[in-house]
Amino acid sequence: MTRVNGQLRPLDVRDRTIKPSAPQIERADPNRSGHVAAPVIGAVIVHVAVGDEVQAGDPVAVIEAMKMESTISAPITGHVERVAVVDGSRVERGDLLVVLAPADAGDPSTNPATAASETGGAPEDSNGAAAGSDIVPA
Questions:
Q1: Would you kindly state where each structural domain of the chain is located, as residue ranges?
Q2: Which end of the chain is more exposed for a tag (fewer CB within 10 A), N or C?
């Protein structure tokens, strides 16, 4: 409080040298498939941790709003790269919850061409011949 013209007035002073203690909520990038965004406003509870493997459709978080729960599912298969919010924090629509890294493209189980090269064989065409070979089946 300060006195101006004989009257008490409130005075707020902002010290810009002090860093805020509350972390800023990030916004999800809709162009990145691994960004999991909050679809509604509410309190979030995250069900995954950094490094967890998730399949597309697996629940990664729940948002509670007005005595209702909304389950948030993973949009892609991969692993959790980063959790952007803490449990119980209030989020707005579009806030970033979790960052997923896509499953490894070099995984032989997901890429038939890679699987064939690692097992020593070549992928076959529809006639049973090795792809890229000059051998024509009889």
A1: 26-119
A2: C
CA angle 72, 51, 25 (to 5 degrees): 50
| Claim: this prediction has a pTM higher than 0.85 | no
Which CATH class name applies to 26-119?
A: mainly beta
Q: Please, where are the H alpha helices in the chain?
A: 112-119
The confidence score (pLDDT) of residue 57 equals 93
List the structure tokens of 83.
């959790």
